[in-house]
Design a protein that fits this description.
Oligomer: single chain
Strand content: 5-15%
Number of strands: 7
Structural class: alpha+beta
Number of helices: 7
Shape: elongated
Length: 375
């Protein structure tokens, strides 16, 4: 439960503004009357002879003007209070709507929007920013709930398989020990990979990174060397081309980006005779990594969903040995966002099919003699 700050009762903002308007109006009226009083009396002769019928006469003028000034100040005070209360209400009406929207959001409903009508001003700018914040927060919460549900389902599957295997081994005296242990090892490895992927995804979304100059071309070469056995097993040609692209970020996480993209390109390739190409370079002041592969044709409406967690189904052409957990591109998107970069996925229109992935990351500031690490 959120902690509410206890405060002593005080005047409302509307009442404070009302008193401020009325006070300012009263002071202004008093100053004007005082100026009229002082300058008018300077040119009126004093009644030092006791002759009341002499006109103009300061004594008569003081009596008449004094009463009129008191009435005028009283009218100004009442007008200031009433008018100030009305004007303060009109001015603070947007804040009231903002407060209602914030109260609704605090109660758990993030679908409400302020949507103040009218031309742009400070209050409407604040309302628009508040609506944008609610929209992003609602999308983030929905994504987190969907991710939690998917993660729970994915983690429950290997645990259920493990439980079933153990029950079979316990109840069946003729169980095959080697086969059961092999299946348990496979299921356990998959659960460990899923847990590590979830932790890596959470780390990428946290955005708290240790940054240093990193050369994407070195990371691409390292990823190709690591994944070459998998490519050869699937009879897929793996090439790395391009030039140096030094960016500013975490070497460990960016290596995971390259590994995930290349591994994903190999796993979702043609059954035989496909190819994967990783290219690095610079473009418009950014470091660029492109990973392109042959593979099945992808519907256009499927492309935006590929970076969602646990999205495998329509693109799964690999064997169980190479099966991922459906978090590869989701991790890539999370890490790229944390580095302030962009991730673009495009279906290849050529007859070979496949996917073209482009990652653009901010380049590292030029510092003479600074090495570009890749570990």
């Amino acid at each position: 439960m959120p902690v509410m700050v206890r405060r002593r009762p005080g005047l409302s903002v509307r009442l404070k503004l009302t008193l401020s308007y009325a006070g300012l109006l009263l002071i202004t009226g008093a100053v004007l009357l005082a100026v009229v009083w002082l300058y008018l009396l300077r040119y009126v002769p004093d009644n030092d002879q006791g002759l009341l019928w002499i006109s103009p006469n300061r004594f008569l003028l003081v009596r008449i003007f004094g009463r009129a000034a008191a009435v005028a100040l009283a009218v100004l005070l009442v007008f200031g209070l009433v008018g100030g209360w009305f004007l303060a209400g009109r001015v603070l009406a947007p804040l009231t709507r903002l407060a209602d929207a914030a109260r609704t959001a605090a109660n758990g409903s993030l679908s409400h929007r302020v949507r103040l009508p009218g031309r742009a001003d400070e209050f409407r700018e604040l309302a628009d920013l508040f609506d944008t914040m609610l929209e992003q927060l609602e999308a983030h919460v929905a994504e987190q709930r969907r991710f939690a549900a998917n993660a729970s389902h994915e983690l429950r599957t290997p645990l259920a398989i493990t439980q079933a295997l153990l029950e079979v081994a316990h109840n069946d005296p003729t169980w095959n020990r080697d086969e059961t242990l092999t299946r348990l090892r496979t299921v356990n490895r998959r659960a460990i990979n899923l847990t590590e992927s979830l932790l890596l995804l959470s780390r990428g979304e946290n955005g708290n990174l240790t940054r240093e100059p990193v050369d994407l071309s070195l990371l691409a070469e390292e990823a190709a060397e690591t994944l070459l056995p998998q490519a050869e097993r699937r009879r897929t040609t793996l090439n790395v081309t391009g030039s140096a692209a030094v960016v500013h970020g975490s070497a460990e996480l960016l290596l995971r980006v390259v590994l995930n993209l290349v591994q994903n390109a190999i796993a979702h390739n043609l059954p035989e005779g496909g190819w994967v190409e990783a290219r690095t370079g610079t473009r418009d002041g950014t470091g660029v990594l492109e990973v392109e592969n042959t593979g099945p044709h992808l519907p256009l409406d499927l492309i935006p969903t590929l970076t969602e967690p646990f999205q495998r189904g329509a693109r799964r052409t690999h064997t169980d040995e190479d099966a991922g957990v459906g978090l590869g591109l989701a991790i890539v998107r999370s890490i790229v966002r944390a580095h302030g970069g962009t991730l673009t996925l495009t279906a290849r229109p050529s007859p070979e099919g496949g996917l073209h992935v482009t990652v653009q990351l901010p380049r590292a500031p030029d510092r003479p003699g600074a090495p570009a690490h890749h570990r």
